[in-house]
Write a structure and sequence with these properties.
Layout lengths: L2 H9 L3 E4 L1 H8 L6 H12 L4 E5 H14 L2 H11 L5 E4 L3 H14 L3 H12 L4 E4 L11 E4 H5 L1
Parallel strand pairs: 1-2, 1-4, 2-3, 4-5
């Protein structure tokens, strides 16, 4: 069993937060990471893993298509994120922003990373899937590094 299969097995039945880079790698078919994130997305789509993300991830994913004026891609990305039964999309409320500020203050995280992390905590996730090396596991969330799964 490979690293990806082992991780999917550990995450089965649990809530896992997906950071923006996971969606970008998948939607852009990134040559370095697509083969790693595809099985994760498929496990979420099949219901093995309960996929969670926040409105901030959608907004970050839309930046490049808006920058290039590709409104068809904007619509396709919105449909992808809005697929019924696929992802639990979380809004960032005041308490989440406050927790993000605390995380930024205590851990020195970039604000958007702290917002994602806070959203994962507030939505009951056990795992946080990312390729950001500045986000680290603690007693609440286990960080799953896409780069480490590729090695």
């Amino acid at each position: 069993m490979g690293k990806i299969d082992e991780v999917i097995s550990r995450m089965t039945g649990h809530r896992a937060y997906l950071d923006t880079n996971i969606f970008v790698y998948f939607l852009d078919r990134n040559p370095d990471f697509f083969d790693v994130v595809r099985p994760l997305i498929e496990a979420i789509d099949s219901g093995k893993i309960i996929g969670v993300t926040g409105d901030g991830a959608l907004a970050e994913t839309l930046v490049k298509p808006y920058r290039t004026g590709n409104l068809e891609l904007v619509a396709a990305i919105r449909r992808f994120f809005g697929t019924e039964g696929f992802l639990s999309m979380q809004s960032h409320d005041g308490e989440t922003f406050d927790l993000a500020a605390q995380l930024r203050g205590k851990r020195g995280m970039k604000f958007i990373d702290a917002l994602h992390y806070a959203t994962a905590i507030r939505s009951g996730c056990s795992f946080f899937i990312t390729n950001d090396l500045n986000i680290h596991s603690d007693d609440i969330l286990e960080i799953i590094s896409v780069k480490a799964l590729k090695e």
